[in-house]
Automatic annotation (TrEMBL):
SUPFAM superfamilies with a match to the protein in the record: Aminoacid dehydrogenase-like, N-terminal domain, NAD(P)-binding Rossmann-fold domains
Signal peptide region: none
Chain ranges of the Shikimate dehydrogenase substrate binding N-terminal domain: 9-92
Alphabetical keyword list: Amino-acid biosynthesis, Aromatic amino acid biosynthesis, Oxidoreductase
Native source species: Lutibacter holmesii
Pathway entry: Metabolic intermediate biosynthesis; chorismate biosynthesis; chorismate from D-erythrose 4-phosphate and phosphoenolpyruvate: step 4/7
Protein name (Swiss-Prot/TrEMBL): Shikimate dehydrogenase family protein
CDD domains with a match to the protein in the record: NAD_bind_Shikimate_DH
């Protein structure tokens, strides 16, 4: 069997990709000139098997991003327990017998990144958005014994809608996590529609967005004395965890 030299990021409209730059620079630093990392940009998840057809033995690992973290799961041979519980995969390892194993390293990256900022009064969190990344965040919060509620545009028994958010909720929920893409470059003047006037110095705002470095969401929190953190370190940590999985 030829040596596996390829890695990639599976997603849609991912020219901005953090992963390609990160891993290409990593391979260069480690002197691994034979390894490549490319964007596997496909319009529909149904193209995924054809993308790999006759090429499985070239790939060692694949990262998965929006919008395929959930839909890719049907194409995998095995899924790690954490990823199963989360219901989303962001890392695929291709085994020597060309089986696809799915993992989730997002929850690990998020947990390690937010933990140093958690204070005793941070007992409850609001998760803005309900996509694949939000599931990993919920899983990490559960592990940290922080209660959480999703905030969504549509009504549901177990969720808040944006319209429901008020001062009382903000006094109770002092960690607010943006898992939506709202505010990502180039739309830097946008932010999730929350009542920022109820943010205080007791709040911690975490944004999965890292471009711009300070999103409007984070700037509004900073203005009111809240602790803030963007998603760059989370991405680095989840990427390193992926690398560990691919090489184990």
């Amino acid at each position: 069997m030829s040596k596996r030299t390829k890695f990639g990021l599976l997603g849609k409209d991912i020219s901005y990709s953090f992963s390609r730059k990160y891993f290409s620079e990593k391979f260069e630093k480690l002197g691994l000139a034979d390894l490549t990392y490319s964007n596997l940009d496909i319009p529909e998840i149904e193209e995924f098997p054809f993308l790999l057809y006759h090429r499985e033995d070239e790939y060692q690992g694949i990262n998965v991003t929006i919008p395929y973290k959930e839909s890719v799961m049907r194409y995998l041979h095995e899924i790690d327990e954490d990823a199963k519980k989360i219901g989303a995969v962001n890392t695929i390892k291709v085994t020597n017998d060309n089986k696809l194993f799915g993992y989730n390293t997002d929850f690990y990256g998020f947990q390690k990144s937010i933990e140093p900022f958690i204070k005793n009064h941070h007992k409850k969190a609001l998760i803005l958005g309900t996509g694949g990344a939000s599931k990993a965040i919920a899983y990490a919060l559960k592990k940290m014994n922080i209660a959480y509620k999703f905030v969504s545009r549509s009504k549901a028994e177990d969720k808040f809608t944006y319209e429901m958010l008020n001062q009382q909720i903000f006094e109770e929920y002092t960690v607010i996590i943006n898992s939506t893409p709202v505010g990502t470059f180039p739309n830097v003047n946008e932010s999730p529609n929350i009542p920022f006037e109820f943010i205080t110095e007791k709040h911690l705002l975490f944004d999965l967005i890292y471009n711009p470095e300070q999103s409007k969401f984070l700037k509004e929190g900073l203005k009111r004395g809240a602790a803030i953190k963007n998603g760059y370190e989370m991405l680095e940590l989840q990427a390193e965890k992926s690398w560990e999985i691919w090489n184990s």
